[in-house]
Amino acid sequence: MDCKNAQTLIAGYLDQELDPVRSLEIEDHIHGCVACSQVYENHQVLSRELRTGSVYFKAPTDLQKRIQRSVRQAAKAESPPRWLSWSWVRMAAPMAAAAIVLLALVPLLRGPSTEEMLTREVVSGHVRSLMANHLADVPSSDQHTVKPWFAGKLNFSPPVEDLAKQGFPLIGGRLDYLEDRPVAALVYQRQKHFINLFIWLSGSDLDVDTKMVSRQGYNLFYWTKSGMIYWAVSDLNSSELQEFVQLVQNQNSPTS
Amino acid sequence: MNIPAGLDENSDLSLYGYGNKADGGAVLVVDEKDTLARFEQTILPHMDAAYNLARWLTRNEHDAEDMVQEAYLRAFKFFSAFHGMDGRAWLLTIVRNTCYTWLHQNRAHEMTTTFDEEIHSVDSDTSNPATLALQSADHQILTRALEELPVEFREVVVLRDLEGFSYKEIAGIAAIPTGTVMSRLARARERLKKILCGQPKEKL
């Protein structure tokens, strides 16, 4: 072992990160080499001094309070409006029952909510894609074929990843139409079940947590992340579909 | 949070508010209060580590505070991606990324644009090694010496010697191979020693 090599390994030796064989080698070398034993001693002194905490900066108390406050504010801002909360629903149940009776007496005044309409649209889109045997405009399991195919057809680039290794092979992609706009539809397969993953721009960078609904025997998961709205729909059971949803969500994890 | 029987709260299912069935089969989102409580238990206690790293990367108290605040809000936003791993390592990864983004935007001239392991390598001239004698009162000198290191060296020293992370954990946080962690540490310590030995005696 030459000194240059040894001096890199000294760090690992000092930090007890070397395997036993390497450790012995470096120990031998240090014993026989004045220069390297000097380096070892110096690094040891340094490391020990750094560990005493004399150069450790602790967070100021007011910063701790400030951060706790802003996190709580963020939590509040993200939480669903009060009228959605379950406890409120329970309290208001009798009132709601009365309201329903009243509503039944008058003609239906308002149509379904936008979310409900979108749910129906997504389910129809999924069913249509299966009925017309028109799952993919670009039938390919290669993400590098599918992703560029959308360029020029959409004003955004949907994230495309083949999840074959995780049991959800990519079948292809196509353009679809939802909420009066063209959207990306990625098609994945799980055994005999097809999954349509619809993606379009949300128009704001507010992320929305995942929600799940079931309609007409189909399961749907939808969420908003990094400015894109995602709807996954399939006749696959909800836990396997959820597994798929998590794989999609982990594709572009923020911490990596 | 309502969790189906047999699932602990770290299981993936708990990300979604299963069990909170409203009419029409809709499932409500996870209880926000519970998320906040979990965040405050697992991530908030590591604020000293977050601040220490940010302070060493930005070399400035004021910017460090901003970085920590921003990192915490990001951490909270992406808390659903946290699956019961080491909270401190997870948080510091976010702090580091936040700081690097800031450094590239505000301290581009200080950043070694293409950090070259070889250029920054230690010359193996060991003919006349100086002996390092540090007194505990030298912490100001030590602080200045550590601040002089390129940021890529500084962070491995902070993560190893100040935070006590393993090489594997550092590799994860700094997104470099474990072998690089070791070689950077070796070079960082050697540089540090040289800076310290190069200090004029009267300053010590």
Report on the structure:
- The complex is a heterodimer of chains A (256) and B (204).
- By secondary structure, chain A is of the alpha+beta class.
- Chain A contains eight helices and seven strands.
- Chain A has two domains: 3-51, no CATH class; 114-251, Phosphorylase Kinase, domain 1 (2-Layer Sandwich).
- With 204 residues, chain B is an all-alpha fold.
- Chain B folds into three domains: 1-30, no CATH class; 31-106, RNA polymerase sigma factor, region 2, helix turn helix motif (Rna Polymerase Sigma Factor, Chain: A, Orthogonal Bundle); 136-203, Orthogonal Bundle (Arc Repressor Mutant, subunit A).
- Chain B has eight helices and no strands.
- The chains are: A alpha+beta (256), B mainly alpha (204).
- Chains A and B meet through helix 1, helix 3, helix 4, strand 5 and helix 8 of A and helix 1, helix 2, helix 3, helix 4 and helix 5 of B.
Helix content of chain B: 40-55%
- Mean pLDDT of chain A, rounded to whole units? 85
- CATH superfamily caption of the largest domain in chain A: MucB/RseB, C-terminal domain
Q: Mind describing the biggest β-sheet of chain A? A: 7 strands, antiparallel
Largest interface in this structure: A-B, 67 and 78 residues
CATH T-level fold name of the largest domain in chain B: Rna Polymerase Sigma Factor, Chain: A
Strand content of chain B: under 5%
CATH topology (fold) name of the largest domain in chain A = Phosphorylase Kinase, domain 1
Number of strands of chain B: 0
Tally of separate helices of chain A = 8
Number of domains of chain B: 3
Q: Any idea what the shape of chain A is? A: elongated
Going by CATH, the homologous superfamily of the largest domain in chain B would be: RNA polymerase sigma factor, region 2, helix turn helix motif
> What's the CATH C level of the largest domain in chain A?
Alpha Beta
The value of Rg of chain A in angstroms is: 29 Å
